[in-house]
Write a structure and sequence with these properties.
Elements lengths: L13 H6 L1 H17 L4 E2 L1 H7 L2 H10 L2 E2 L16 E3 L2 H4 L3 H30 L17 H9 L15 H4 L17 H8 L11 H9 L10 H13 L2 H14 L11 H6 L25 H19 L1
Antiparallel strand pairs: 1-3, 2-3
Helix pairs in contact: 2-4, 10-12
């Protein structure tokens, strides 16, 4: 980006005062155009007509701020016919060549900065050992030679196996350290006990609940912690087994996935109210059914009305 430079004393310069504010607006806009397009002060005639009027352009020429073709100013270039050139533009503003050179230098400087930053990032991601690029001295022992010398063990020639059989040759094949695939390392009974746990023992007072749930189709595991066993015993002592089974069946039906352990029902059973052992638990069992054989009030009223009308009907 280039700038059209205006001196800080331009507000009181005689030429600008002579041109007037309207023509001065055209002069500023045309100067910005020349700086952007690197015309070195040349203003095409179409641009002057676009930004201002012909009287404003004539005022700029008359005040000496602009020149037309054929002017006699030795410091300013000659514009084409119909164009204008700003007076002393290159004294206060850089030439086209200088701007392009500055831009090229800036681009090269930015490119080097980007390459340096990229190299620094690569070095941080992949640190390189400085010793890898160091010239190797033949007098220095290498890591490979140190390792090979450390692994070299000298054996006396008289104990290299001449005359006496080696230990593997003299060992009994039945006592070979290699495992025999035909012989299991662990007896099958021990493997089964380690893989499959024993069936959890349900306390006797909870066996009716387990059997009732299983009979109702609620088949779950009964592996509980000691605290859960005590909690379940308290629930059974407080609430009848049929009520617990009915509640479990409802939860079993509403569950998104089948419960796997009886622990799933403990929160719901805990929230149930106390139900005595002999109380009805099935839906509708606590409803007192009406005696359908006994007539209601409407039927009795109809019978009384018919009895009252019967003598009158007989009299007729």
């Amino acid at each position: 980006m280039t700038w059209f430079k205006v001196d800080d004393t331009a507000h009181a310069h005689p030429k600008l005062l002579k041109a007037g504010n309207a023509a001065l607006g055209l002069w500023v806009r045309a100067g910005a155009y020349a700086a952007q397009h690197l015309t070195e002060g040349v203003i095409p005639g179409v641009v002057a007509q676009l930004y201002g009027t012909a009287p404003q352009a004539r005022k700029l020429v008359a005040s000496g701020l602009w020149h037309t073709a054929g002017h006699d100013c030795t410091r300013c270039a000659q514009p084409a016919q119909g164009d204008y050139v700003m007076h002393d533009f290159l004294i206060y503003n850089p030439t086209r060549a200088r701007v392009e050179d500055d831009r090229a230098k800036a681009a090269d400087r930015q490119q080097r900065a980007r390459e340096k930053a990229a190299a620094q990032r690569n070095q941080e991601r992949n640190p390189i050992d400085s010793s890898a690029n160091r010239p190797r001295n033949d007098a220095e022992p290498s890591a490979e030679s140190d390792e090979s010398s450390a692994n070299q063990i000298e054996f006396p020639e008289d104990s290299a196996g001449q005359g006496t059989p080696s230990q593997p040759d003299g060992m009994d094949p039945s006592r070979s350290p290699r495992p025999d695939p035909s012989r299991p390392a662990v007896p099958p009974t021990e493997v089964q006990q380690a893989s499959y746990g024993s069936t959890p023992t349900v306390p006797p007072n909870l066996t009716p609940l387990r059997d009732a749930l299983t009979a109702a189709g609620v088949v779950v595991e009964w592996s509980l912690a000691e605290a859960d066993w005590f909690r379940l015993e308290a629930i059974v002592a407080r609430t009848a087994v049929p009520a617990l089974v009915e509640h479990a069946r409802e939860q079993w039906r509403r569950a998104r996935s089948r419960p796997r352990s009886v622990r799933y029902f403990l929160p719901g059973w805990t929230a149930l109210p106390p139900v005595p052992a002999g109380a009805p638990t099935a839906p509708g069992a606590d409803v007192i059914r009406l005696d359908v054989a006994r007539p209601g009030r409407v039927a009795r009223a109809a019978d009384m009305f018919a009895a009252a009308l019967s003598p009158q009907e007989n009299a007729q």
